[in-house]
Amino acid sequence: MTRKFFYLLICLAWLAASVLAPATPGAAEDPHKLLFENKCSKCHNPDRIKKFHKDKKGMSETIKRMSNKKGSDITQEELDAIDEYILSLDPDTGSG
Question: pTM of the full predicted structure?
Fold first, then answer.
């Protein structure tokens, strides 16, 4: 009886872990980061953008200019989120 109970607990733990785990890789990531990677990497390598860090005003101007380019398909809300994400990165390492 003890062995069956032990196996039952293991099965329940596995089931709970699979239900609570994110459904897709990266699902738990920052949505601003995912937006940045999806929109900006159409034209640029994300690592390059992360390292090209300016002050808040300069970065906002650059992002605004890039969002106006044909095919960028970036809304104002997305622009604000991307701006917020890039400005949250460490200017020296390009990481968040």
Answer: 0.57
